[in-house]
Automatic annotation (TrEMBL):
Residues 240-421 form the Tyr recombinase domain. GO terms for biological process: DNA integration; DNA recombination. SUPFAM superfamilies: DNA breaking-rejoining enzymes. This is DUF4102 domain-containing protein. One of its GO terms (molecular function) is DNA binding. Gene3D superfamilies: 1.10.150.130, Integrase, DNA-binding domain (3.30.160.390), Intergrase catalytic core (1.10.443.10). Belongs to the 'phage' integrase family. The lineage of its organism: Bacteria, Pseudomonadati, Pseudomonadota, Gammaproteobacteria, Pseudomonadales.
Amino acid sequence: MLTDSGIKKAIRDAKATGTDVWLTEAGARGEGRLCLRAGKKGASFYFRYAAPDGKQARLPIGSYETLGLKEARAKAGDLSRLYQSGVRDLHAFVAQQRAEQAAAIKAAVAQREKAERQAATGSLDALCTGYVAWLDAQGKQSAKDAKGVLDRCMAASPDLAKRPANDVSHKDIAAMLAKLVEAGKGRAAGKLRSYLHAAYRAALQAEGDPTIPAGLHGFELDKNPVALVAAKGLAKFNKARERVLTEAELKAFLSALDDRPGVQADTLHLLLLLGGQRVIQLLRAKPTDVDLDAGTVTLLDPKGARQQPRVHVVPVTAPAAVILKKYQEGAWCFSTHGRVPLRAETLTMLVADISAKLVKDKVSKEPFRLSDLRRTCETMLARMGISKDVRAQLLSHGIGGVQDRHYDKHDYLDEKRHALEAWAAKLESISSGKPASNVVPLHAGA
C-alpha cells in the first residue's frame, strides 16, 4: 500500500539516481490500481488499467504535491468503480467529459453574452433571459421550468420578444395567453402568466435593489403589465393532482423496488422512509450532509421567494441508515458513477415503469407518478395522527411566515424523529402484511 513516507523516499531516490521510480497500490485483478511515478521534478499519480486492446494504460490523476495521497486514492476509487461498471476506455471517457464540460462552459458564456446584448436593448426576451438567470443563480428549482416555458413563448412570438419590455402592454400579454387557451393549453397559459408576472416584478424591484443581477436592470419600467391580466380565469386549468396510492399499491411498489436492486431503487426507498422529501433536494445530498452518528441528513430547501436555501434537517431512522451507509464514498450520495447526482427524470421513468406494471397486473386502477409518492406519504402520516404542524416541519412546506421566521425557533427534531420512526414501522407493516406493534397515533391536532 502506498504511504506518504514511501512516496517521499521514492522522490528522494529518483532525484539521487536520475531515474523514475514507480510505486503501485495493492489491489485485486480487474479493478485497476493507483500508482505513482516519482521523478526528478516531483511525483504524479496515475490510474493503471487494462485498455480495451488488452494493453496496460495509465490515466493521469494529478501531482502528489497538489492532491496528496488521500485525495488521489479517492479519485482512483471513483475510476475503479467506473471501470468495473463497464467503462473500459477511461481515457476516452475522461476526454469526452472534458469536451462536454468545455462545451457547457462555451454555451454558458454564449448565453451570458446574449443576455448582455439583449439587456442593452431592454427587450422582452432580454427580460425573460435575465429572470431565468436570476432564478438559476439562486439555485431555484423552478429555473429549468421557467426557461422552457419562456423560451417557447419567445419562439412563438418573435416580434413581441424583440419589442422593448416597457413597450409591452397588458393587451399584448392577454392576446398571447389567449392563443394558448384556444389551443387547449390552459395550464401552460397559467404558468406563462405567472413567470412573466414574476419577471416584470423582479425587474421593477431591481431598479432600487443592487443585489438583483445586472441582467434585470435597465428596462426602465414604470408598471407591471401582467398585473392587469386577470389570473382568476386561468386558475381553473391548474387543478392539483389528488392521486394517492392505496396500501396495496404501496406494498406492490415496495416489492417492485426490492426486485430492482441498485441506486435508483434505493433512492426511491429512502425517499419513502424519509416521509416523502422533495426529490430534487434528496438527489443533491452529499455524504458530508449525512451524520449517521447523530442520525440526520441535512437537505437544502431553496423553494419559494427566500434568498438563501432553508436548512432542512431530516431524522434518519434505522432502515434509512442502512441505505445511506451504502452511499458515503462518492461526491454525491446518489449517483451512477459518483461524478454527478442522479437525475430526477431517471427516477420518474422508474416509477412510471413500475406504475405501468401494477396497472397491467390490476393492482392499480390508474397510473401514478413520482410526485404522487410525496402526497401518499403525507396522507398516510395524517391518517396515523401525525399533526399538521409536524408534517409541515417534516416535509418543509408552508414554513416561512412571520411566526416561523422570527418567533418559532424550535427545531422539531424530536417530533420529526418520532413521526418517522412510526412511519418506518408503518411501511414495514405494509410491506410484510403484519401489524406494526409500534405505530402509535400522535394526536396533536390536524
